[in-house]
Amino acid sequence: MKNLNSKKSRNTVAILINEITVADLMIENAIKNENENSKLVWRISKCEAIIGLADVWGIELPGLEISRVVLPELETRYTNQLNETIEINTNYK
């Protein structure tokens, strides 16, 4: 676990916390716009930031355990969506 004694460390933690805040806003926006792909991307981003804060910095936020559980599933869904998009684009030519 890294310490927060340097300005660079504090800035890195602030960026991760900001990423969580932005992800929450973007998830809300994606829900309003019924954009499942965007919602998925931002949920992955949020989970990664929450897990990074815990694993690297020792800062355990609410939602850490659920993030650890759902992140692999979200990544699999995202990969599958990308593969489907590639397949559709390949077949379109």
| Beta-strand percent range | under 5%
By CATH, the topology is Methane Monooxygenase Hydroxylase, Chain G, domain 1
Binned, the helix content reads over 70%
Task: Find the structural class using helix and strand composition.
Answer: mainly alpha
Global mean pLDDT? 92
How many individual domains?
1
Give a short account of the largest sheet: none
Number of helices: 3
- Order of helix and strand elements from N to C terminus: HHH
CATH class: Mainly Alpha
The tally of strands reads 0
Using the alpha-carbon principal axes, give the shape: elongated
Terminal-residue CA separation = 50 Å
Radius of gyration: 16 Å
Low-confidence stretches: none
The CATH architecture can be named as Up-down Bundle
What can you tell me about this protein's structure?
The protein is mostly helical and 93 residues long. The chain has a single domain (7-92), classed as Methane Monooxygenase Hydroxylase, Chain G, domain 1 (Up-down Bundle). Helix content is 83%, strand content 0%. The protein has three helices and no strands. It has helices spanning 7-32, 36-57, 64-92. Helix 1 (7-32) runs antiparallel to helix 2 and helix 2 crosses helix 3 (64-92). It is elongated and about 55 Å long. It starts with 6 loop residues before the first helix and ends with a helix. The model has no long low-confidence stretch (mean pLDDT 92).
